[in-house]
Amino acid sequence: MTSLDTFHDITASSTSKRLLAAEALLRGLIAQQGTHEQCQQKPSKSLKKGKIAESKEKSSREDDQQLCPNLSYALQRLVRGLASSNPFARQGFSLSLTQV
Q1: Which of 16, 67, 72, 81 could connect to 93 by a Cys-Cys bridge, CB 3.0–4.6 Å?
Q2: 28 inside domain
Q3: What does the DSSP assignment read for 71-87?
Q4: Could you tell me if residue 89 is inside a domain?
Q5: Residues 90-100: tens digit of each pLDDT
C-alpha cells in the first residue's frame, strides 16, 4: 500500500478500514524514519577551540534534518486533514496524528 492509498483509506467511512490505514501509515513512517536516521548517523568529531559557534550552527541544521521527508509530509497532511468537512476524514486524520 502506497502512502497516497493510505491517506485515501484514512478517510474511509468504514471504521476498520480507517484503523488499518492508520496502522499501515504508522508502520511505514516508523520504517522510513529508521532508515533516514541510519543514513544520517555520522561519527562524532571532537570540538576544537573556536569551533563552538560553527558547531551550534551545524547542530541547528541537523535538527531540521532529523525528520525524514515523508514524515514531515505526513504530519503536514494529517494536520491539514483535521479541518476536512468529511467527518470520517477528521476521525481518521486525528487517529493517525495521535499515533504518529
Answers
A1: 81
A2: yes
A3: HHHHHHHHHHHTT-S-H
A4: yes
A5: 999 999 999 99
Q: Enter the pTM of the model.
A: 0.73
Mean pLDDT of 33-44: 78
Cell of 38: 541510519
Counting beta carbons within 10 angstroms of the beta carbon of residue 25, is it exposed (0 to 12), middle (13 to 18) or buried (19 or more)?
buried
Instruction: Work out whether the CA dihedral 85, 99, 25, 40 comes out positive or negative.
Output: positive
CA 8-2-25 angle, 5° bins: 70
C-beta neighbour count of 81 within 10 angstroms: 19
First vs last C-alpha separation in the chain: 18
Question: Per the structure block, which three cell numbers stand in for 16?
Answer: 476498520
